[in-house]
Design goal:
heterodimer, A: 130 residues, mainly beta, OB fold (Dihydrolipoamide Acetyltransferase, E2P), three-stranded antiparallel sheet, 8 strands, 38% strand, B: alpha/beta, Peroxisomal Thiolase, Chain A, domain 1, two-stranded antiparallel sheet, 33% helix, globular, binds zinc ion
């Protein structure tokens, strides 16, 4: 880590990439593992030699739930944990398919959704969906 | 790590305002539980020299509680690691007592969140990597774990429902329990869906309630009015905070905390007469029965079938009705400990397990995050 005490830090950098429509995650140059969520050190080996790389966007659904809220609180929607091809896991949702049709093991592709208040990574079924 | 085995004991327990306590503040109901716990030990507030308090509604809980009671303690602790905090505080108290830092510890918890908000109060700020997806926390995190358990092991919604039905059957025998009406598997399955695979009946209650423990040295415990519950084993572990970072959604750190607590106590799962685990959701009981060694990994769903953990079953689990049917004032960890102590004393009324001498109290915090296991036993188990 540089001795200069100035941002943007890892958290800000991640969201700055999203604001540009890009999905980047950290990789540890010491142990060669992917790191998510963004950190100042690698949780696998303790190194602070982390670099940003564009994510492949490929993932697989690891776990899934359908949240069932009243319409005024968001209605019915998917929440899933996605295993990224790089080896890290993140919370997200799968769109372009009915929420209860999302299944564990389903191959998905990332996209950056900038339509809301803040940009976020969502997923769609790979090679399909709308 | 056997040096703490049996060196400390729980000599007083108290509950107050379980269910609904309208018009009473957090510290008012806490005081109700404390007066009962101290009364059992034959002590007064001035006899307490260590104060442990966890609050979801404000930090520095032990400062507030000591001030409220007029105690100027030698040791103070306001640990917040979720619903296992009060069990962690038993371990901290054991260390403080054994090293001479204090003699008599008061551990207390209360919340009036049912009366003041009507819903589970969260004590942590939203995570920037979770909040944008609007998981209904903590429910959705546990639901994700349940989805994984179903996928890997074929666990079914009916098996989850068995857990809720068993808890309700125990609660029917506990006058303190908040929900005591009969409950069937069909009732659970057809209840209002919250976050698949859970309906509202797979989820803990939202209640008011307070609990308190008095912990002192085994030597001092001999002179106390009530039979002591000796702490034979205690251990904690955590592997993650947020659900996306749980290494395997079907294995909790209870597999580590339980094993270490058993090692300290010199016991094995088949030795236990009663098992009290933190059942925030129906998946919890299933996962903890596996991780704490009562059945192999993946077999928890089949283990609880046919009323196996209900009254008259093969293993008495959550004999007070648990967080699912007895009470759940935001953090439930205090109550598995209190129920275990009451069972070991033979004070559990209609739900008493005959001759209960060894009990397990297990606490869970966060989203299957912090795990604390306590092995408690009567004098005969020392
Ligand atoms: Zn590394």
């Amino acid at each position: 880590m540089s001795d200069a005490i100035a941002g943007p830090g890892a958290e800000q950098t991640y969201f700055d990439h999203l604001a540009e429509g890009e999905f980047h995650i950290q990789h540890c140059t010491a142990c060669h593992k992917a790191v998510f969520y963004p950190r100042a050190v690698c949780p696998h080996c303790g190194s602070d030699a982390l670099e940003w790389r564009q994510a492949s966007g490929d993932g697989v659904v690891y776990a899934t739930s359908v949240v069932r809220q009243r319409p005024e609180k968001g209605g019915v929607y998917n929440v899933a944990l996605i295993d990224l091809a790089e080896g890290a896991r993140m919370m997200s949702r799968v769109e372009g398919i009915a929420p209860e049709k999302v299944t564990i093991g389903m191959a998905v592709r990332a996209e950056v959704d900038r339509s809301g208040d803040a940009p976020l990574v969502v997923f769609r079924p790979a090679g399909g969906g709308s | 790590m056997t040096g703490l085995r049996g060196k400390s004991a729980i000599v007083g327990v108290g509950t107050y305002g379980l269910g609904e306590a309208p018009g009473l503040s957090e510290y008012e109901i806490m005081t109700g539980a404390i007066e009962r716990a101290l009364g059992e030990a034959g002590l007064r507030a001035k006899d307490v020299d260590a104060v442990f308090c966890t609050s979801m509604q404000q930090n520095m809980g032990s400062l507030t509680l000591a001030e409220y009671l007029g105690i100027q303690p030698r040791f103070s602790d306001s640990t917040v690691i979720g619903g296992s905090s009060n069990l962690a505080q038993v371990l901290i108290a054991m260390m403080a007592i054994e090293t001479g830092v204090c003699e008599t510890a008061l551990i207390a918890y209360a919340s009036n969140q049912r009366s003041t908000s009507g819903r589970l109060v969260s004590s942590s700020k939203p995570d920037p990597y979770e909040a944008p997806y609007n998981p209904r926390q903590p429910i959705t995190s546990y639901a994700l774990s349940a989805s994984r358990h179903m996928h890997e092991f074929g666990t079914t919604r009916e098996q989850f429902a068995e857990v809720a039905v068993a808890a309700r059957a125990w609660a029917a025998m506990n006058p303190e329990a908040f929900m005591r009406d009969p409950l069937t598997i069909e009732d659970v399955l057809s209840a209002r869906p919250i976050s698949d695979p859970f309906t509202v009946r797979d989820c803990c209650l939202v209640t008011d309630g307070a609990g308190a423990l008095v912990v002192t040295s085994a030597a001092r415990a001999k002179d106390m009015p009530k039979p002591a519950a000796y702490v034979l084993g205690a251990a904690m572990a955590h592997w993650h905070r947020y659900i996306a970072n749980m290494p395997d959604l079907t294995v909790t750190a209870a597999s580590e905390s339980g094993a270490r607590a058993y090692e300290m106590a010199g016991v094995k799962p088949s030795d236990f007469d009663v098992v009290e685990v933190y059942d925030a959701f129906t998946i919890n009981t299933i996962m903890f029965l596996e991780d704490l060694g009562f059945c192999p990994k993946g077999e928890g769903g089949r283990f609880v079938e046919d009323g196996a953990i209900a009254p008259g079953g093969t293993l008495p689990v959550n004999t007070n009705g648990g967080g699912l049917s007895c009470c759940h004032p935001g953090m439930y960890g205090m109550f598995p400990v209190i129920e275990t102590v009451r069972q070991l004393r033979g004070e559990a009324g209609d739900r008493q397990i005959d001759g209960a001498a060894l009990g397990l109290a297990h606490g869970n915090g966060g989203v299957f995050s912090s795990q604390v296991s306590l092995v408690l036993g009567t004098q005969a188990t020392l």
